[in-house]
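Here we describe the complex-level prediction in full. Unlike the single-chain runs in Section 2.1, the two entities below were treated as one system.
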Amino acid sequence: MKHVTLKAEVDTQLCIGCKICQKVCPVYAISVVDRKAIIQDDHACRGCANCADRCPQRAIKMVERDDPFDVGVDVSKFDYEKIRELCATAHLNPEQVLCYCVGTRAEEVAAALLSGATTPEAVSSMTGMRTGCTIECIQPLLRLVEAAGNELHPNPNGYQWYGRTVTAWDIPEEVKKKYDSRGFYFDEDRALLDQIAAIDTREEK
Amino acid sequence: MENIMHTPIMPIAPKPSQYGIDPSLVRKRAAELPGMVSLKLQDLFPDLPDVIYPGPEGALDKLYEITKDELRKVDMSMIKPDQSVNVLASHHGFTLFGGQPYALLLKAIRDIVIEKTGCKNVRLRAGVGMRFRETEEYMKRYGLDVYYEGKVKGIAPVDEGIPIETEVGTLYGLKAVYDADWIIHAHHTDVREVHFHRQIDKAVKPFGMSYARIETRSTYHQNLGPRAANFTARAIFESDLVQSKFAFAAFLNVGPHGVIGADADNDLYALNDRATFIGCQIYGKIMTLFGEIDECISVLDFPCPVPYVFSAGVIYANFTGANTDLYDMDNTPLPAYTWYTEAFYGKNGKPLLDSIPPLNPAIKLCVHNYAWTGYPSAFFSEHIPTVVVGAEQAKMFDTEPMNIKYMDHAVVAKTTESAMDFAYKMTGTDKVIIFDGAMGGLNCSESLAKLLIDRAPAVSQRVENELLPKWFRQRGVDISVLNSLKKS
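The structure predicted for the assembly as a whole is:
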């Protein structure tokens, strides 16, 4: 869950319609229409500030909302076994924190996917995940979206994300052999990640 | 003992930035408080190498000349007069020793490239961590925009990317990094995030981080594991694309106590070995010494985000893990703080694995006198009692996208003095360590200074005789590497 306290505000006098803002928005809240950036529904903005921080004209600023609101998906409404299965496919523990800024856990992303989200942007909009730094959680987000049976199609006209990358489970053996004497602990880390993913916190309780 | 305690070193002034409160709101520095002293690091560890800066008047001029001499030794014959060169910089260099030394390195690189090659199309590309405007601020502050004749660009991980084919598949770099014929990797040997890179390929890291797209950075922090993460950087550096453009690396050679000199090389791995193994020796001692602190109040007081404020070259994030040996790859699979560790805390607020160490229990309370937003820091305030000084600073954190929950766990004091009074009463300790980036030494309370002075000799011996051999063995070399590096 995210408490959304900010929204983007465009100074149309300064805006030159370059579209950078719409290319970096993780929830497609901002777009350029008639050469001016516009936020059609300001409740679609999750307040990450990417648009403001990349605008070459500094035409966008983040302002405090006078109607802050929460976004999130109620995990308790979904079959937890299905959530566990989905997370396991992505090598994640349901309680694992994926988004360090918002605090989104894997189980909430899984719940968003079970409730019908099929893209990273939809998950971000529903949970607030990847609307802080917008950097570090893209890979587990892509892993889960794919694990839910969705094909990944990056936006050819945007910079939102390009694709999934290597994980601990698919580093080639010859690469490991070539470099492990330099202090990289490939197999040990994979075992650690597997150990985390396998923990059933319901049993612990 | 008292004769090596000095009056506190005044830290650099607060800086105007969109990531921190207005400097006028920082009314008191912790170093000004009663009972604080400073220690010089060479008094604690006499074998630390001499530094050029901080130094007497003219030290920066001397550094500039030494840096240019070092650069003149590098082969730049691959760069032709009609070609283009990107000098690649990263934000953290500007936080070291007031920022001017790193800015001088960047100026010297431009000067010598032009001098040796006749190429004048030299551009500066400055990468960031998570604060997308940060290096834009630095380039203006240090006049680099003028020095590079406007050919400067702040780059961020959400900017347009390019695919980079590597031994482990496609990773993604920033297009603006690689849009020149040649690239020059301008960095430093400061150890900084040991919890992330674990002193493995430290000198290569920016290729997987500040020069990289979000997909690559997330690979590092989410896909590979805490001790394999930095392979991401090596995979990119080894790629045909990077190898076809890499001209040389130029590093500011620093220690926890100052700027030692400059180090430039066409062979990044040779430079990486010097940065890695000498770095283990000169930072390993102060890191290990901080692990001897039994109880303390930590004060944050520097213009950068919470985990990156530093004391004696040790960032606060690493002090929160000083109860473990961050260099030990076998016995510390997960440091007390790293993002993988943070990820592995369950909904009950406890680690998913019993073997995950807690944040350094010696830190009884944190006084956040002055530190920036722009890094997800709620994990620290959630697990370490935290007092934030000033309602304005608290408000800034409470509305910042990466720190929405920071103030859920922290309390606010009106002044530095009232925050410290509260801290003393709540913790019962008078040991205080100040993370204010004091140059050449560290600021702390007299009681903590006594402990550090007392423990330093034994720590020095332990690092030399026991820990360094272990750390080196885990990194595929033995202790003789130090001699071979000195000879080279």
